[in-house]
Amino acid sequence: MRRILVLLSALAVLLTPTAAHASSKTPVNSMAFNLCGVMCNKGAMPPAAYTLKQITSRSIDVTSLQEICYSQYRYIMDRLPKGYSSAFVTTKSLGSCDDHDKRHGKNYGLAVIVKGAKIGSKHIKVLPSGRYSVGMYAKVKGKKLFASSVHNAPNPALNEDDLDSLYEWLRAKSGPILSAGDYNSFLDQPGIARFKAYFTDADHIDNEITFNPYGGRKIDYIFTSPHFTGETGDTLYTAISDHRIYLGSAWL
């Protein structure tokens, strides 16, 4: 009988989660920011420098940027430490983007930047309105995820079509998903309710203002799939854009 109890005790030790297993999740820090790169700052480099500082000083793992000149994007990528991967998609060609760095031309669009290695090539989704999302698979802190940057149409009817299309595109991706950016969507929209039935927004408790005009509105989101837990979010006001920087964190 004593031998049986010893064997059962040993088996219980083997089956009980160890501290290492219990703490196997790691925090993933994210940031979504619409730089308003032409309307607000005409392609200037100080907003890019400010964004770069936020990424590095806050140890951001996934950064989602919208309305950014390619020259501003290159400014950031050229100055980030080694180990970052990124994807950029051009949505327009605007003369203001050529004012400060003629090497990189007039391209304007959105980008996703990940602290980690990119897996495969970038993924581009053209939404029904003609707006875009750009994404990529990457390994962040040893874990594979799909990260995307989003900029939907501001028109409510077109926005709902964009939300539906984007939702289907994201749900078709494998593994953990982090999709962030300027969704241009209000909290009471059916498309956002659909997103929230599966994804969790970082700031799902307070729903803080992310867009300053019209008395302040919530239109930016950091959505994470159920693979993540413990989502939290906050916003940071900056005068360089009409949007606030949206900061998120979750465990993966």
TrEMBL record:
The source's domain of life comes to Bacteria
Which keywords describe this protein according to UniProt? Signal
Domain Endonuclease/exonuclease/phosphatase per the UniProt entry, residue ranges: 50-243
Q: Which Pfam families match?
A: Exo_endo_phos (PF03372)
| InterPro entries registered for this protein in UniProt | Endo/exonu/phosph_ase_sf, Endo/exonuclease/phosphatase
Q: Give the residue range of the signal peptide.
A: 1-22
Recorded protein name is Endonuclease/exonuclease/phosphatase domain-containing protein
